[in-house]
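Input record, target 12 of the design panel.
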């Protein structure tokens, strides 16, 4: 099986779902996992489903059109509930005030809320397997109530998930859970029904160290590799293929219950359609981890793929694999201040690495006619160009040449217009992120604000010249020469 992450702003129509389902069957998958978190119209919590969420009608149509494909929901019922917790109604369930990704398992109202989500899911999906999540619950025991519960994090986790899994079993279903927290607290597995299927996600190696621990209480285990786009400018092709082969081989050798390929976070200009060839290639590897064709052999547009999936990553630095949500993408788009990308990557991208990355993008653009692949290349090129433009503007600004600085900043507006168009096309084509276009608009507005500031204060009208990182910062205030908003960081936490 493989899972599609719809929780990260993806907004698929029924036609998009059909396309994913058809490609899943064509590739030989018998099961498609829909990772939804909050992105589903749960009847018990009508306040949660944002625009573009999956709905029961879409699931019914999918089942009717593709009866041979099992469609399995992937929920999350403790950690990774940020989509619930950051709504007004859901904010009362947070384990950590004003932030975090986890609900409070000591709050009876939160437990009832999770039970409602389970019941909603049971009524919408007919699959035997229902995945109830449970990964990355790093906040366990943090709130005053939870910190006083006997047994600590292990007991909090077991006492939350055990009854929820039992609720599914009583309805004749099979619960699925992620394995990472059970690896930290193996005793918690004793609380899980025997039918529970444990998903051992290992994206950086095989399963030999982890899966035996997860099956110690007799539960069946599924090995989960990943196509790593979340920590790549586009995709770490070589590392992902190595991971899929290692997990598939270990799952076969250890006689595990199966393999579930995961794909995550196609927000921030990921495009699911550019990953589908590797979803298909992974299916062949699951059958024959040693001899199945390589990702590169299996894909169309091989030259484009090699340039942006192998050569770009080989430049290292911000383009290399580090397991972290991609730093350049995040800094360019997540914080309403694209100049963060300049602050952190100016040396790297203004130099040889930036030149080579731009060359690779140009060659990649010439190597494909496919809209999705061109969009990826436009985005990577745009991110690098932004940093280089900002550095050029900084140099002029520091030399008391504000007009020239403004001329260096001005093309950024067109850059974000272009990226907004790429994002809109991705929405139409594949149900891609509906937030990325908004991020581009916010970035463009901030660039315009910075241009006005440089025009107003770039000739030392304040008596001093604010540092370039200060005048480009959203918190900049004229005459606040000390930057109290920065010195006084506690107020912003
Ligand atoms: Zn709590």
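The sequence produced for target 12 reads:
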């Amino acid at each position: 099986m493989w899972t599609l992450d719809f929780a990260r702003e993806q907004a698929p129509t029924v036609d998009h779902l059909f396309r994913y389902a058809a490609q899943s069957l064509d590739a030989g998958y018998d099961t498609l996992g829909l990772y939804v978190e909050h992105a589903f119209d749960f009847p018990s919590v009508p306040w949660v489903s944002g625009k573009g969420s999956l709905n029961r009608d879409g699931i019914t149509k999918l089942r009717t059109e593709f009866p041979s494909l099992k469609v399995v929901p992937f929920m999350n019922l403790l950690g990774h509930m940020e989509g619930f917790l950051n709504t007004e109604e859901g904010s009362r369930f947070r384990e950590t005030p004003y932030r975090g990704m986890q609900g409070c398992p000591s709050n009876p109202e939160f437990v009832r809320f999770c039970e409602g989500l389970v019941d909603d899911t049971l009524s919408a999906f007919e699959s035997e397997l229902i995945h109830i999540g449970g990964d990355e619950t790093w906040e366990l025991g943090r709130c005053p109530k939870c910190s006083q519960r006997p047994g600590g994090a292990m007991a909090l986790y077991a006492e939350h998930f055990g009854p929820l899994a039992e609720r599914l079993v009583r309805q004749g279903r099979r619960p699925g859970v992620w394995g990472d927290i059970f690896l930290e607290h193996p005793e918690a597995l004793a609380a899980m029904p025997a039918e529970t299927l444990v998903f051992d996600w290992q994206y950086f190696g095989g399963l030999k160290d982890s899966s035996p621990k997860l099956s110690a209480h007799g539960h069946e285990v599924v090995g989960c590799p990943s196509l790593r786009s979340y920590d790549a400018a586009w995709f770490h092709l070589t590392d992902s293929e190595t991971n899929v082969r290692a997990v598939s081989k270990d799952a076969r050798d250890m006689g595990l219950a199966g393999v579930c390929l995961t794909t995550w976070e196609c927000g921030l200009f990921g495009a699911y359609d550019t990953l589908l060839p590797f979803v298909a290639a992974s299916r062949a590897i699951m059958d024959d981890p040693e001899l199945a064709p390589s990702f590169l052999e299996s894909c169309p547009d091989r030259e484009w793929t090699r340039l942006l999936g192998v050569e770009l990553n080989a430049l290292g630095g911000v383009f290399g694999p580090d397991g972290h949500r991609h730093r350049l993408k995040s800094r360019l788009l997540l914080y309403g201040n694209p100049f963060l990308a300049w602050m952190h990557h100016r040396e790297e991208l203004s130099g040889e690495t930036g030149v080579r990355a731009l060359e690779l993008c140009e060659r990649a653009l010439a190597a494909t006619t496919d809209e999705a692949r061109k969009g990826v290349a436009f985005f990577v090129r745009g991110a690098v160009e932004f940093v280089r433009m900002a550095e050029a503007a900084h140099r002029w600004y520091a030399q008391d040449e504000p007009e020239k600085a403004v001329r260096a900043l001005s093309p950024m507006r067109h850059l974000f217009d272009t990226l907004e168009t790429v994002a809109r096309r991705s929405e139409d084509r594949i149900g891609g992120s509906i937030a990325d276009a908004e991020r581009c608009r916010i970035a463009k507005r901030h660039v315009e604000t910075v241009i006005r500031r440089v025009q107003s204060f770039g000739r030392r009208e304040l008596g001093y010249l604010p540092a370039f990182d200060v005048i480009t910062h959203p918190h900049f205030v004229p005459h606040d020469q000390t930057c109290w908003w920065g010195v006084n960081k506690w107020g912003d936490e």
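The chain has two domains: 2-300, 309-492.
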